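Hi team,

As requested, here is the filled-out complex form for the pyridoxal-5'-phosphate run. I kept the field names the same as last time so the parser does not choke. Let me know if anything looks off before we queue the next batch.

— J.
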Amino acid sequence: MSVLPWGLLPDSAEVGADGQLLVGGCDLAALAEEFGTPLFVYDEAQLRARCREAVAAFGDGVAYATKAFLCRAMARLVHEEGMHLDVASGGELHVALLAGVPAERLVLHGNNKSDDELIRAREVGVGRLVVDSFDELDRLDRLHAADGRVPKVLLRITPGVEAHTHEFVMTGQDDSKFGFGLKVGDAAAAVARARDMAGVELVGIHAHIGSQVFVAGFFEQAVQALAPFVNECALPELSVGGGIGVAYIEGESAPSITEWGDVVRGSCEEAGITARVSAEPGRSIAAAAGITLYRVGTVKDVPGIRTFVACDGGFIDNPRPALYGSGYETFAPRAVTADRTETVRLVGKHCESGDVLVAEAKVPPGVAVGDLIATPVTGAYGRSMGSNYNLLHRPAVVFVAGGRARLVMRRETDDDLLATDVG
Ligand SMILES: *Cc1c(COP(=O)(O)O)cnc(C)c1O
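And here is what came back:
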């Protein structure tokens, strides 16, 4: 038997009278009819619950990493539930501000912030700036000379910890483009420099060891590596960044946000860290609340090789398989508890053989043209990493709760594709 592991579905998932999947009380097939496909469907209550869990685990100051998934509705939701928002560009800053999130609840990240990004962030008064390089300190000093503003900053430190995750999302090792290296002494030099500068108010230390980290113990290692330095600096704040993983496929398991918080706070206590400890979860807030719905357009059986099931989206809705070789599960929303006896390759409609969504996709028998097929745990780094390659339209996004669906991002149109084309 190969039934979709129920735990990969959103919290509100339930089986309808005909064996079909409901999320937030909404029938997925009806959502596909109403809003078209591909479609991102988020369980709104789950998003809210994860935000509350993060606030309970870390307290005030914990920030949602908006790069995982951002639109104005998401920014408002996160803010309503008491989280701060971590933004990593002028664009993310803009959307969060337009959503009505107060600037002092925002944290600006980036390893190469432009003057424009820094000027804007300082003008609106973001709560924290996370400084990533000596050049950025120089820049902040220069800007201060011009306008006298003094932002509160954290310094991003690279603790020299190799969290086991994909190389592209590992960020705590010494050989990293991010932060000030602890071992080489850059961290200490940056603290001395920042303390000496008029253009910043140094309030804390930040570290982010990577993303999709399954073992909370790596955070313990990071805390242990940072502790002597953090204690010596005696600054009021420490952020351990984001990165706790989520289960994407059968057989995977990940610590909850609560368990992660316990490990982080426990190891900080043990190491004698008295600074306020916070974190920046992204994936663990958004990933499992989201499902992507696709319509099957072509089923191609290549004898002796495999069956290709082509859907109406592709690697622009979910670049993770192409980027990192990430695995996903598949299911048919009409028969969510059915035994998935067939193995096919779920592909998109882009002009590349690398346009694979699920290489070995398990599906129930009889998947045919016109069917819906869905991939769970696609709420993070899908819509937000998407592109317009082949000039496909980026999908719509709906939030579902209490039997109602709310469109929060509409599907793109041909006119949207021409919005920046000045002829
Ligand atoms: C990406 C990122 C996060 C969020 O990571 P997740 O793995 O989504 O939790 C948090 N902080 C920083 C600095 C990041 O770059």
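Two things worth flagging: The first helix runs from residue 28 to 35. Residues 44-284 form a domain with the TIM Barrel fold (CATH 3.20.20.10).

Thanks,
J.
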